[in-house]
């Protein structure tokens, strides 16, 4: 695979990124090591994690994913130099008291301390891409679709957060910075402040993007294009809905795949991916894929792999076999006719997992 420059940074990554949020919950350390080994063997040079992981988030698995990655890096001499390593500082914890006491803010001091914690767990001297996992501001994210001015939270300013990130870059602890679950306004304001005050310029934004959630195309893509910010697309398979494995059985019940994320974790079914409308739409896309001689997974991943908006697609897996399937979808082309049919479905169904 060719590599792609992230924003205006000096980071060059493969167009497929291995997401690791299952490590430490669905995936034990031995299996995680096998997945990481295979990913490196197949040429993927980009790994993404977060201090909050594993997912679903809970106190018992907080930081577990970074610890597993650090252990793997420590036992694979030379691997670190081949990789671009990304992690994230959690935004306001609110309902997660195990993160900074459930603070409703993310201060500059929080960012500095969180980075030091990630460096220690990852057993590395530098984080290549350090991202703010979600905004301090109250924004429509994680299933919300409306901005509510009355709920605009007062918290640490973007400027102050950028100053903390600048401290980390100056100290050599971070090479480039990014955002996640951000809005067009948020991306634009972070870039404006960085340019105005000589602070680190945002290289990336990591947002959900898939056939069931194309909200990136509702203005964020224009912002990213003009400001030269790269999209890292997460959940390209919509938490498994777009693999087709739920088409006949639904999300629960005796025939549902017992170890699948949505089946296994009730909290996941309460999110955007668990909406009845999302499953209904996934079934329609699965039928479209099969009508064109593709598997549902091939269609969903090829859609992300080939979109101009996407710099790198973050895939999350629980086995080496899943990893190989997702990587094998690279190079799949979608005909103009099929792309028109995808757009027609979106016009009818919109973004049920937004």
From TrEMBL:
The keyword Oxidoreductase applies. It holds the Pfam family Aldo_ket_red. Keywords: Oxidoreductase. GO terms for molecular function: oxidoreductase activity. Residues 15-345 form the NADP-dependent oxidoreductase domain. InterPro entries: AKR_Detox_Biosynth, NAD(P)_OxRdtase_dom_sf, NADP_OxRdtase_dom. It comes from the Bacteria. Gene3D superfamilies: NADP-dependent oxidoreductase domain. This is Aldo/keto reductase.
């Amino acid at each position: 695979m060719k590599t792609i420059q992230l924003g205006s940074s000096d980071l060059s990554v493969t167009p497929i990124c291995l997401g690791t949020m299952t490590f430490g919950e669905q995936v034990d350390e031995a299996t995680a090591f096998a997945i990481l080994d295979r990913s490196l063997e197949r040429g993927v040079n980009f790994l993404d994690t977060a201090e909050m992981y594993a997912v679903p988030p809970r106190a018992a698995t907080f930081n577990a994913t970074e610890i597993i990655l650090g252990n793997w890096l420590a036992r694979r001499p030379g691997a670190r130099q081949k990789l671009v390593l990304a992690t994230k500082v959690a935004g306001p914890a609110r309902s997660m008291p195990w993160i900074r006491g459930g603070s409703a803010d993310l201060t500059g001091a929080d960012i500095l301390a969180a980075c030091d914690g990630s460096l220690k767990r990852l057993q590395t001297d530098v984080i290549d891409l350090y991202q703010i996992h979600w905004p301090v501001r109250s924004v429509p994210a994680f299933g919300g679709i409306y901005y509510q001015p009355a709920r605009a939270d007062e918290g640490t300013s973007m400027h102050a957060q950028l100053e903390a990130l600048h401290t980390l870059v100056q100290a050599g602890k971070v090479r480039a910075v990014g955002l996640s679950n951000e809005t067009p306004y948020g991306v634009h304001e972070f870039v404006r402040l960085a340019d105005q005050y000589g602070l680190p310029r945002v290289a990336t934004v990591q947002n959900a993007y898939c056939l069931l959630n194309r909200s990136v195309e509702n203005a964020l893509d224009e912002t990213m294009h003009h400001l030269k910010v790269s999209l890292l697309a997460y959940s390209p398979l919509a938490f498994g809905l777009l693999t087709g494995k739920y088409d006949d059985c639904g999300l629960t019940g005796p025939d549902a795949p017992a170890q699948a994320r949505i089946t296994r974790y009730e909290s996941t079914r309460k999110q955007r991916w668990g909406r009845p409308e999302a499953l209904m739409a996934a079934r329609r896309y699965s039928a479209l894929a099969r009508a064109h001689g593709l598997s549902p997974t091939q269609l969903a991943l090829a859609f992300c792999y080939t979109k101009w908006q996407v710099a790198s697609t973050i895939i999350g897996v629980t086995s080496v076999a899943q990893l190989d399937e997702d990587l094998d979808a690279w190079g799949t082309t979608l005909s103009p006719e099929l792309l028109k049919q995808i757009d027609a479905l979106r016009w009818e169904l919109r973004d049920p997992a937004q």
